[in-house]
Amino acid sequence: xxxxxxxxxxxxxxxxxxxxxxxxxxxxxxxxxxxxxxxxxxxxxxxxxxxxxxxxxxxxxxxxxxxxxxxxxxxxxxxxxxxxxxxxxxxxxxxxxxxxxxxxxxxxxxxxxxxxxxxxxxxxxxxxxxxxxxxxxxxxxxxxxxxxxxxxxxxxxxxxxxxxxxxxxxxxxxxxxxxxxxxxxxxxxxxxxxxxxxxxxxxxxxxxxxxxxxxxxxxxxxxxxxxxxxxxxxxxxxxxxxxxxxxxxxxxxxxxxxxxxxxxx
Length: 265
Description:
Distance between the termini: 36 Å
Strand content: 15-25%
Helix content: 25-40%
Structural class: alpha/beta
Oligomer: single chain
C-alpha cells in the first residue's frame, strides 16, 4: 500500500522534508538568539540613558576606548568651545534623511584637556557638498554641557569609508586619536552627542533618534514562525502520503471494476 514511497519523486520529497525540519529549527533558535541580544542591548542602552549624569572625566580619559556599558551614558563637562578648530563630519543625515554635516567642536576643559562635542546636524548650505558650511556659533565663555558619551567611530562599525584628501576642516569619521594629532592636545577618548543646552534657533539640530528601541519582539515572532513551519513540514508530509494512498486505492478499485465488467456484445 505504501510502496509508492520508494518512487524517485517521493524519495526526493522525503529528503527535502528531512532537510527542512532541522534547518527551520536552527533558524528559529538563531532568531531567538537575536531576540535575546537585542533585548539585552535595549536594556543596556535604557539603563545608560536613565542613569544620573556624571562628569565626563569619570568615564573617559585620553586614549580611553569607550566601552559597551559606557555608551550613551549621560555626562557633563564644564569648559569653553574652541570654534577656531571646529570641523564638520560629512555625509550625515537628520531625522528627515536629508544629507548634511555634523558639527564637531573641541571643548576645552579647565585642565586643558579637550572633549570632542558633536553639537548636532546642519544642512549642506554651501554651493556644493565640498564647500565648508556656515555654522551657527555655540555659546561663548565658560559653560556646562550635557551629552551622551559615544565611542570613536570606525569604518567597521559604521560602514562609512574614511576618505582621504578631503577639503580643509572636513572629516568622515569622529576619532579622538586623529583629532588629538590634529589639535596637538590631550583629547578624551570618544566624544559626546550634545543634548543640553539646546542651541538658539534650533540649529545645529541636536542628534536625537531612539537608541535602545530595537524591535526585539519581531525576532521573537520570527522564531515562533520558524518553529511552526518546522512542525508543519511532517504534518504536511503525512497529509500528502494519506492523500496519495487514497488516490491510488481509488484508482485500483476503479481498475478492478473495469476488469470485472462483462465484455460488450
